[in-house]
Amino acid sequence: MRDPRLEKLAQVLVGHSVGVKKGDVVQIRGGSVTEPLILAVLTEVVKAGGHPLIRMTPEEATDILCRHGSDEQLAYVSPLAKREFSTVDVSISIWGEANTKSMSNVPPAKQKLLSKAKKPILKIFLDRSAKKDDTRLRWVGTQFPCQASAQDAEMSLAEYEDFVFNGGLLNLPNPVAAWKRLHIAQQHLVELLDKATEVRFIAPGTDLRVGVKGRKWINCSGQQNFPDGEVFTGPLEDATEGTVRYTFPAVYGGREVRDVVLTFKGGKVVDARASRNEDFLFEMIDQDRGGRTLGEIAIGTNFGIRQFTRNTLFDEKIGGTFHAALGAAYPETGGKNNSGLHWDMVCDLRRGGRIEVDGKVLLKNGKFLNPRFPQRMKKR
Fold it and tell me: What's the pTM?
């Protein structure tokens, strides 16, 4: 029997996150393990009058391509995929795998080719999502609570289901109202940051200065990633200085890179280290000219998510953390960095860390000093 919370999640995604309207062409993407949520989303899209386009891919498809494909096949950019992302009105991605480690033994050079091949499609996606007119691509991505992700989070499946649904505030009578309340609190934070010249992040092993003058901060409250809870911008491409030591392992393409330390000068990574999968780290950041430059800097504001789960969708939202993404910037921020990579890495500030905005402390030990800013997820 399907978990009734899936229907509630589908209703929030289709109604609140992307606002499907009659006549919308709606792309619904996910692996075969996510079928229960795909069907729940499909039901809501049809009820809303949309035209669903299902893209349910067997999980092994990418493994087969990586293990048996030539360099030419790995680097191939499908004109059909480019056309699809140029045409659909809405894209809903549902993430979930039967085996999150299936790509662990694929040579990093092959994964680099796959990532580079996504660059033209990623550019279409980002450019369309930044538009302000009727051609804007509305999108959202969410996690299906599956066994493999529960194992990564070191939880039982039942515990992980509760974690996923509660992280989206689906345990509340009116989750949409709760996300709207968070939006208001985050907007106060955005208005402050929009005036900033520099944001400094300090934690054990970390002292990072990021130039943000003239860049637009974005209020994320359930319209794109779900669950949500962050504010972000695209930093100035030549104005990141210092060192960051990421607290949590950096997960990308099914690989876990541990103890990542990056040093920036003039906006570029000039030194990179990791205790595990360091060769993969270098393959990814050296895939193109934009791979060593930050495309995003963000502050996590979801105080309902408290623990690391090896899933960036949740980990980057933890209240009292910050994350920075190497690679592609979101054009709506004013960011200009272009890359096939967008790799979020998370640093915890809850034990001895702080954020300074133009020299003034904004957050200390994981808590905002201004009571108007997000402090907790209200349970009502």
Answer: 0.92
Residue 316, C-beta contacts closer than 8 angstroms, at least 6 positions apart = 230, 298, 300, 323, 344, 346
Question: Token digits for 245?
Answer: 């030591």
- On whether the CB atoms of residues 276 and 325 are closer than 8 A, the answer is no
Three-class SS state of 106: coil
Q: Classify 206 in phi/psi space as left (phi over 0), alpha (psi -120 to 50) or beta.
A: beta
Would you give the distance in Å from CA 271 to the centre of its chain?
A: 24
| Cis bond before residue 227 (omega within 30° of 0) | yes
The Cα–Cα gap between 124 and 83 comes to 9
Per-residue pLDDT reduced to its tens digit, 248-259:
999 998 899 999
Nearest-5° Cα angle at 303, 302 to 304: 90
What kind of fold does domain 4-167 have according to CATH? Answer: Thermophilic metalloprotease-like (3.40.1830)
The ranges assigned to domains in the chain are 4-167, 175-368
